[in-house]
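Researcher: Next entry in the queue.
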Amino acid sequence: MKRKHLGKTLVTVVLSVISLVYVFPVFMVLINSFKSNTAVKTETFALPTSETFVGFQNFLTGINLGGSFWESALNSLIITVLSTALILLFTSMAAWYISRVDSTLCRVIYYLCVFSMVVPFQMVMFTLAKTANTLNLDTPLTIPVIYLGFGAGLAVFMFTGFVKSIPLNIEEAAVMDGCGPVRTFFNVVVPMLKPTMISVGILEIMWVWNDYLLPYLSLDRTKYITIPIHIQYLKGSYGQVDLGASMALIFLSILPVIVFYLACQKHIIKGVAAGAVKG
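Model: Structure for this entry, 279 residues:
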């Protein structure tokens, strides 16, 4: 018993240290968002003092510098919501079809989706940027189509694993009651997919909201920018970067994701566990 208790204590200590390592950068961003630009450069790891503390001035500066921050936030919100909705709808339908139709084509599509998860974005980013420009996929309302392609791999993998765990006789009973494929999917399958849908939705929201490279390459930046791009443009005269304002906006950008993740983290564990029942 003592050895078992010691093992649990050791695991707790190790995980606590790892948690602190992950939380430390966020803490540093927070404290530096309240310090002057000079103090951020010279006293990066120090707590704000009466001389270096500037209150909410960095937040006001960041919001007003480099264009409209709220417009950038709206663009990020539109892209995130539309991309997540498309991914959840189309990949869940695809996973259901792949799981229920045992054919060579379905297996090929499934393995292609799984393979897409290991393809680095850098391999296709220049071709993607050109294609997006050619097809006019360079606005917040159209770029979700690109996110659908990149987010389909993980989503199909998780949804397929969960659908295989659903007893087929439930769907057969719905068919006998007069449900067609569409009604069977939305009235029977989707409610049972809720844990995995929440899990996939959280992961996709965190990815799309924080993504920098894909919007930077695909969007028409003369008209539309997202929050990560807006932060990059926080430059004053002679190209100098206001680090205090940058830290303030970085904290504002990650705060919604942190709150959203903390509120929904239990669903991630449930969804991953449910999607791993069968593969």
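Model: The first helix runs from residue 2 to 32.
Researcher: Noted, moving on.
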